[in-house]
Amino acid sequence: MFHIDFSTEGEIVCSGRLDAAQCAIAQAFMDSVAETCIVDFSNLEYISSAGLGVLLKTQKRLAESGAQLKIINVNNHIHDVFRFSGFHAIFEIEAKQR
Amino acid sequence: MHKKFVRSYDSLEAIYEFTENILASRNFAQAIKFPVHFAMEELFTNMVKYNPGNVNDILLDIRASNESITVSLTDFDVDAFDVTSSRDIKIDAPLEQRKVGGLGLHLIQKMVDTLKYEYSDRQSTVTFTKGTG
């Protein structure tokens, strides 16, 4: 199960598994973001390449207005996916504290 | 163990549970399970995405030993598409030049130990292995 919402602090909080079946939900949410925002992956267990596409599409759109997504609390496995994808060069990414 | 799944993204949750039950029964570490789930779901998703009108289910076969996990996905009545061919993915490109899509097979090739493609009689079979060591 995947869930995405704003926290009371205004951060985007994701949880569960962001696979191809859930990307429409994630993209619809991200399309409403218009300024720089922190995305908390503390409780995100899994992301597919389709999920990476949601992040990349949003980052490209925000960059046109000088804004960006910053991704925090990324688990080791998703961190590897980001590294293999070259996402460290195009996102600010912070690993989960152990 | 093998099982057929309906050609739909909605099958991903059932595939995860089917696979997780097999892997959990052998107490594989998350570092092994994550790439297995990832590769399997990416390959299944590709089969759904590129043959949406095909009415055949997709066959998933998982064999686990102490040394490795072997997963095969078989798609029936499809054109050939070799998932092992090299991909021209520019992961070092700046944001404005990055294109959405195309990362899945690149990531699979990074995360599994072997990846094999077979095609015969309009039947595609993709097999990958992940060592447990």
Explain what the structure shows:
The complex is a heterodimer of chains A (98) and B (133). Chain A has 98 residues and is an alpha/beta fold. Helices cover 34% and strands 34% of the residues of chain A. Chain A has helices spanning 23-30, 49-63, 76-85, and strands at residues 2-6, 12-18, 37-47, 69-74, 92-95. Chain A has a five-stranded mixed β-sheet, covered by helices on one side. In chain A, a hairpin with a 5-residue loop joins strand 1 (2-6) and strand 2 (12-18). In chain B, helix 1 (12-25) packs antiparallel against helix 2 and helix 2 runs antiparallel to helix 3. The model of chain B has no long low-confidence stretch (mean pLDDT 93). In chain B, strands 1-2-3-5-4 form a five-stranded antiparallel β-sheet, covered by helices on one side. Chain B contains three helices and five strands; from the N terminus they run E-H-H-E-E-H-E-E. With 133 residues, chain B is α+β, with helices and mostly antiparallel strands. Classes of the chains: A alpha/beta (98), B alpha+beta (133). Chain A binds chain B through residues 17, 19-21, 46, 48-50, 52-53, 56-57, 59-60, 63, 76-77, 80-81, 84-86, 89-90, and chain B through 9-10, 12-13, 16, 30-31, 34-35, 37-38, 41-42, 45, 48-49, 91-96, 98, 100-101, 103-104, 106-107, 110-111.
Which descriptors apply to this entry?
heterodimer, A: alpha/beta, Transcription Regulator spoIIAA, B: 133 residues, alpha+beta, Heat Shock Protein 90, globular
Assembly of the depicted chains:
heterodimer
Average predicted confidence as pLDDT of chain B: 93
Specify the biggest β-sheet of chain B: 5 strands, antiparallel
Number of helices of chain A: 3
Specify the CATH architecture of chain A.
2-Layer Sandwich
C-alpha geometry of chain A: globular
Q: What is the string of SSEs of chain B from the N terminus onward?
A: EHHEEHEE
How many beta strands in the DSSP annotation of chain B?
5
* CATH homologous superfamily grouping of chain A: STAS domain
Per DSSP, what share of the residues of chain B sits in E-state strands of 2 or more residues?
Answer: 25-35%
Largest interface: A-B, 24 and 31 residues
Fourth-tier CATH superfamily name of chain B: Histidine kinase-like ATPase, C-terminal domain
CATH topology of chain A: Transcription Regulator spoIIAA
Number of helices of chain B: 3
From the helix content, strand content and strand pairing of chain B, which structural class follows?
alpha+beta
Low-confidence stretches of chain A: none
Report the β-strand fraction of chain A as a percent range. Answer: 25-35%
